[in-house]
Amino acid sequence: MIGELSRPVWSMLTGPRADLAVADGDAMRIDPEYGPFAAARDSSESAQAALAAIVRHSPHEVWLVEPEEWPAPARTRVVRTAPLLQMVASGGGAAQVEAGDIEALTGVDVPAMSELALATEPGPWGPKTHLYGQFYGIRDGSKLAAMAGERMQVGPNFSEVSGVCTWPEYRGQGMARRLISHVMQSQRARGKVPFLHSYAHNEGAIGLYKSLGFEPARELVVTVLAVA
Length: 228
Known about the structure:
single chain, 228 residues, alpha+beta, Aminopeptidase, 2 domains, eight-stranded mixed β-sheet, three-stranded antiparallel β-sheet, 6 helices, globular
């Protein structure tokens, strides 16, 4: 678990989602339409040069998720960094929840999903982020009030809960809790261990995740790179 989850982007792009990797070898990134994530094999000169090439040819900023802040390769710059807390739900976790008004989201829901994600910023969102894995939502009439889904698949066993977001007027109704629990149930039914990432300062979210069976696993850092 330690080796795979300590470098989740590298593990994803060299493992279960190698099909989404752009470039290969010493550095790679995910298809930009899925998101901004990239990783280098290590901080060697050749790997840093390969990463620099990726940054220079990427349409937007590039995000690395690593145990420590990643040094900017030549002709790139660090735009910002942020501490993350990685959490894993390796135990029994939250109680089973009835699906009720929770529904699987499909291609016709993408405009509403994108609107919600871009307004509430649960994490990077691109034109194909919804294709990482299954997303679920709760509606108020025709309006998508909240959603949650999956992102990184790491190694043979780990599946990330991600894209958890709720319009402000619907917060406090337990929608996020129910959606996360539903995603976790789906993951466990496939033999996967749920994990997630939270900004380390988001104490409210971390408290919710702990109540659902997630336990702190390690501190990571997101480093955002752009062309210098």
